[in-house]
Fold:
Amino acid sequence: MSDRARLETLLREMGGQGYRAYRSLKGTWDLEAMTLVVDHVQADPFASASRVRLLLTPDQTALPTSILATESRRWGVAALLARSFARRAVRTSRSRGTGRSGEIRMSDPGQRVLPQTAVQVDADGAVEARCTVGLPARGRRVAGDDAVALLLRDLPTLVHRTLVARAHELDDLASCAATNEDADAARAALEALGLVAFVASGSILPRLSGVDDRPLERGTVPFESPDTMRVEIDLPNAGTVEGMGITEGVTLIVGGGFHGKSTLLRALQEGVWNHGPGDGRERVVTRADSQKVRAEDGRPVSGVDISPFIDGLPQGHETTHFTSENASGSTSQAAAIVEAIEAGARALLIDEDTSATNFMTRDLRMQRLVPSRFEPITPFVDRVRSLHDDLGVSTVMVVGGSGAFLDVADTVIRMETYHALDDTERAREIVDDLPSRREDESSVSVPKPRPRRIRLASLDPSSGKRPRYVRALDDRTLRYGESTIDLVALEQLSSVDQIRAAGAALALASTWGGTLALGDLLDRIEDAIAAEGLDALETRTSGSLAAVRRLDVATVLNRLRTIRVD
Ligand code: ADP
Ligand code: MG
Structure:
């Protein structure tokens, strides 16, 4: 008897039995359209749904291997398959009883194209997809006929419509592959060109809304590079592409309110990730070692040397090992910068909209009124040059409100009704015409951050009886052990699967024991992912992990209130 017939018989016989009977489904079933592997069976119809893997052979997918030659191409195709499966599952799967009965779900990758575990494509065209299915119940009893319909009809139909070549236009598959390979190639080219970021002409930067990451459709002005900033990058598929290159150093984005400054910066911070064809930002790439930093009052800080920015707090509060349960706007922003550099950032992305005003600059009148010995803050404007000249850390920042930064800028981009203009020369003339009347408050250069050693036991992910409790509650909150970590300020880490991966990475590190310098801890996590893929982070197979950078793992670690550093 075929596996398919055996499974059908088993399910029908199970009908009416207690829900636990479903546990006998665990294992591998060779169905005609695919192999079904049941990894985990839910305890009851209301519990988290059962986890299954769908394995398709090259014959079953018929994906053309000619478009799958590189890893980067395969991730581009995988994202398309995952997106179509996830969305179709939401649209078509229907309730087949109590609780989650009948529900088929997969992580939706959204606009980003990342290595992830929901759908993986091999060079030969084989596909592994991971999803959850709610095994059908009437009350708390097995609904056998519904289970047959779910596993032997709904699921294969869904696979047929989403995970195989015939479900898609060949052009779409090929373009997802090529676009992703080009994006990786463009990002890889930046460093040698001395660039922090590249924004191809024709890119569409604005989004539908603050909560909808799809491109704005109406009245959109496509990006165009100013002539003086134009660079060309050779891509494996698109050929030579031109656009604006943002060079290393200090770059200002200025312009009137509502003229597109923050939109450009957001595209740059998002450019550390790839995007699919049609997103509008598929040729906006930023170096992976770029970190968005912002003020985030209320966050915890653990043993960070913020003294280059803030020193001599009232009552002798220590700033070389600054620790706080409830940092202020300026101390949180200072900590974010030092932490980012410690974790390996070579470029900072900053928007005045989310910065602490007193951290950024102070004018002459305030310098007169408040003597510097009573002002703990050395404003960023007096530090940003040294960050680049001494530490090699570039800054790209939006400043519409303060001309003080013109003195320290290498490049000034002015946004005017969504058009980017190179105003570097004009800014220099203005600086000569109207010398700044403020005093530079920095005396020594910014030192390299002192590497903190993390006590790995303080990353303990246990909660109550559970040895490892790591849950992304939504796209801004991670439950980690006994702690709840607020990630709302981490704009570059905004997907649930990425948050889960960052949490899983810390849980993995907690098992190593002893203490490790933060940089070494991040190296080891990167090595583990490079060797075994994202599955290295989890103890069980999960279809809900997406790639994170070392900088992202560090940002989550730095917001964990329990960490202890030496
Ligand atoms: P700023 O930071 O300069 O105040 P924003 O970047 O917030 O301005 O942009 C203001 C508004 O303009 C936003 O609603 C944004 O969606 C829209 N916008 C930005 N860039 C473009 C563009 N290229 N085409 C059309 N609308 C845009
Ligand atoms: Mg703005």
